[in-house]
Design brief:
The protein is built from 43 helices and 16 strands. It is an alpha/beta fold and 1178 residues long. Helix 28 runs parallel beside helix 31.
Length: 1178
Amino acid sequence: MVNAADEYADPVGGAAPESDFDRQEIRLAVVLNGGVSLAVWMSGVTLELHRLATVRRRTRAAYLPLLDLLQAEARVDVIAGTSAGGINGAFLALGLARPRELAGLRDLWCRDGSLEKLLRSPLRKNPPSLLMGDEYFLPKLRSALRTVLDSPPLGDGGEAARDVAAHPVELILTGTLWEGRTTSFTDDMGTGITEVDHDATFRFAAPADGTDTLGDLTADEVVEKLAVASRCTSSFPGAFEPHWVAVTASPAAAGEGPWPSTAGGANFRQSQYVLDGGVLLNKPIRPALEAVYRQPGGVQVRRVLAYVVPDPAETTALPAQVPTAEDLPHARDALLGVLTRLRSTDSVSRELTEIRTRNEAVQFRRRARDRLAAAMTGGAEDLSERAWSGYVDVRIDYAARTIGGLVAAGQPVGEHRWSPSELDEVLRGLIRQMRGQDGSFVPADPLATALTRTGGDWDWGMTTVERLADMAVDVLRRALQLSPMGSPQRREIVEARRGLGATLEDIHRNRRLMDLYWAGAPGREYPRAVDGAVDECSRMPMRESDRFGKVTNRDMLQRWLGRVVDGWVDSARSENEGADPRQRQYELAGAVAEQVRTCRQAIGAVVRTSQLVEAERVESQWLEALHDYLFGPVEGSADDGPVEGPGAAGEAQLLQRMLRLDVVQLAFSGASQDVEQEVELVQFSSMTPQLLTGKQLHHFGAFYRPSWRVNDWLHGRMDGSAHIVRMLLSPDRLRQCGTVTADDGPSPADRAADLTTDRTADRTADRAAERIAELRRRRVDELLGLIRACALATGPKGDRDRGWLAERWEAEDAAECRRFIESIVTVVPPDAPDAPGPTGAPAPSGADQAGSLPGPDGDVNETAGDANGLAGLHACVRAVCRSAQTGILREDLDALADSIRGEGDSDRTRDGRIWLELYDAKRNAAGGTLRTEDLWQLWWEAERIGGERIPDDAGSDTFARTVAHAAAAAANTATSQKLLRPRAGRPGLPRFRPVGIILAAFRGYTLMVWGMVVFLTRRSRFGTRAVELALAAGGVLLACAVLVPALPMAFTLAGVLLLLAGASTAALWTPGARTVGRRLLALAVPVAAGMGYVVWEWVHRSPKDAESALIRIGVGLLVVLAGWWVARSQREPRPDSTAGRLGGAEQPRPAVAVASAAGAKDGGSADGSSEEDREAAA
């Protein structure tokens, strides 16, 4: 792995515009977990993330004023998805790589995400699953992805191509392998181990360097592969059948992939079926982290991992009641729970712990560098000499582990593979023997001589160059973080960082070539003529062992590895056009040191004023320690004095100091392959999970009604927007934006007045204080005006919303926002006092420290962290959210009305009917375009839709159709003959004729119910008459079985099933799900008992006895129950399960949205009517 500071490489390069010196880049790695129909909510979040990343390609975009305020750019470069999240990840990756609009996802889910459309026909013979995967789902995915690709590109086409090339995107989708993939290796004792893994990953990328990539997102044919990968990752077990993935690589191919397949770059070699990715990994955080550390960065990068999970409570909530031993889970609940609830709450603590551990490791390495630099100032030579032997041991061990791991991964598949530990042991000896020779990459003794080597004699190796680059990036990053925005010092540091970018790209390229050489070594020949013949060590020997597992041909491995190490120099020369690799490494190390040296003065100026910018004054002290060690103490500081070498270190001297610091740090802290980059974790979750309809029915709920899907889509957009604003408005970045230097403040008139005024010393001090106070007021007003512009920003359809937004801003947010901004604005005077030294000397206080100028609420550095400061920050977030969410409602609230209207008058829910009538009334009263306050009032009333539940819908046509169709499809799948048919390696179910008859009868019963429901929901006279005829036929058949002797049992069974189907059909239209359940249970118990008795009679006596028992036990009971049930269902009115919702307690609401619509809610509706009046009118 590249420890490359390539993470900070600037792939664009070139001179920066003046405005780019202060620009921050926010990189998002998006992790989307599984959730079945909660994919609709995640799709809304996905659209908001897409609009954030493509904001510069849009006109009047929602997040553009906010990014301009923060002087930031935002983009998504890593996407990892599983199951339902994988589908949204595929659309997001395609929309970013090719840049295209994704707003059509709403209509896709509303139109094609119906459970009735996904269910298989109950008439199909031997179905493989309940839902249509390859017949319906895959074609719809393919068509939707193609629609996105065929839509017009966002922005200029040429600009889009350049942007994609400069900003690559990587997509990882997970799956579960049906057969698995084998991995062979040996333990430290030489015993062979074969392991079978079932995890699958599919990788797609938009390449940044024009090279061929498996799953190239910039190629048109990627649509088919994306559709297949999305289909695989969302193959919910039992609901969708597994999908076949064909891999074109040889099963014996060397390396670890990825391999070309019909689903992109796959991590398995053998073609096989793939299931849902959430079976093994429902939260793909680890693949996302691995991809994050592979991505290049820019000048100022803030790395965020956005974890998108619909309901965070599911990951942490404990049962409301203490479980007891009597609460035994039913088989159905256990199976569905494992496939839905339990797999969606698999522990994420390991991944979160890994994020924290990596961040802590990065912080530890940086803190160790700081402390060692402080300790080595004035005594670097002595400390580095003492650490030299330990440094050499660490370097040899690190080189052996790195090379051994690459060689081990490149071995062909098989049982005779060398273990990494065996390769490491041999390589340690070889590398130690090579020290002082031409091909060595570990410097030879002594240290003083190694430091003075140059050109082709420089033997420190490429990994040393990488660590020096890490050191340089760390110094410049700290200085950039503490430098005031707009200052000359910041410009110098940014230019140095950009100059370092080209060097880092070259370092990354050389390291990549080195890794490819070692990984490809097992497949190459290294011939050496011996007496005119090629010896047996020209290729990597296969591992041989005795009967105890001990290796017997270690000497052959040692000779072969020696040739591989010798061949590295020749390979490096050929890759660098004949240039000596050591010479090239020395040039790169010198270029790194030179870029740091060029901004020495700027870093020193930042050190002098850094304690005024940083509230905690921690980074400023450690930056001073690094500065003093590398360049000498800052002029005028208390510690100003002679250090080792001249203060203004040249390139060669600076390089030697950096090497000495690397020697000491590596000797005491060890070597690491991890990139020095910290990652923030930001959770994107629903603020009102109780209003997500997709949580019902084991997360299949949103597929039930179109209005439910639009409801969840809207909630996804609203929640995603709120989280984006909260993430962007970072207090640290706002504090940076609020820092201004006194040199930047005076206007030309002020400067002229200063030149013409004869000022005394007192006048000069007074004028300086006045200038600082004026600059502070001016910066506060400027920032407040920019936040107000964000709070009043509207989209193309939102011009009429500005007035309402302005009213809400003045009434609710302006005062708190001003107090917060006043608490973070800092003025740095040109003659700022010196910073404290590394010993922790106290900084100046009182009026001498401009960074602590008292504000209206006390000290500004303290106010930013107290309750008032947090309240002010929340007010800023609330105001900006209100603007963005108003645009969302303006864009998509009409779709909710259309989806309810499309459900039909006869099948519309009561809450949907009330909301639609209110919508129509407000729209008509406003003349066709809703007023802003009406938008928010309707959004609050939409809680009715989100609060609907499937049991409350019992008695509707949709309920009857869905339940009957699902039951018939499930029975058809469960009674498939494929379950009874044995296959290779898997025995079939034993054939037992009574069981077969019962299963066939059950399937026939569900088919009858489905058929009756289909006929009745068509509202045709023919359908009604057909059902009546079927019930009459059932009664006739049952009567004949009772009255006519010796009739075949089929007549009795058919009559019973027809009557039972009629009773069940009536139950589906009986309102009140609990009543229906009790009636079904009351009917199912005697039927099950009777059928059990019939089977017993069949087995132990004879079929005639069973038939007689069936007639005696079942006929009368079924007829009585059926008649009683039908009669009762005709008399009972449908209970109103949602009555009083408006007048009752309100559902919890998100804080952002509550504040956003407070004015609309408090003021009532536009027409002055109260909620009770509207309820009565409805």
